[in-house]
Amino acid sequence: MECRVSWLGNDGMAFSAETGSGHLVNMDGAPEAGGRNLAPRPMELLLAGAGGCSAFDVVLILQRARQAISGCEVVLQAERATEDPKVFTKINLHFTVKGKDLDQAKVDRAVKLSHEKYCSATTMLAKTAELTYSVEVIAE
């Protein structure tokens, strides 16, 4: 896996990342750090990546379990250390899974499997952060 990150110029703290798959993602810093708030912060993208990785697992596991899933959302709440490096210290992932006749036990199992076995991103973040999760199932 590869990614190229380039500073976008000396008038701010904006960067552009080109992923190995050829996609572009822009990042910017907070105004108090010299940025112009034009794009997500790098740490926000790290958190979003963890949510995407885990949600991907949950959807895939439920599809393979032949569950009629129609939606999956994960809201992440994170706390960071106050001293540098300001790593994540606590992260909660709240999953809301929608579908028809979903089996609560299978949804719980999918989230647990992502959390404990499959999600590479949350496994890495768990090296510095206490990870917790909760699950809500909405019947359609």
UniProtKB/TrEMBL annotation:
Domain of life: Bacteria
Matches recorded under InterPro entries: KH_dom-like_a/b, OsmC/Ohr_fam, OsmC/Ohrsf
Family matches, as SUPFAM superfamilies: OsmC-like (SSF82784)
Family annotation (Gene3D superfamilies): 2.20.25.10, 3.30.300.20
Listed Pfam families: OsmC (PF02566)
PANTHER family on file: PROTEIN YHFA
Name of the featured protein: OsmC family protein
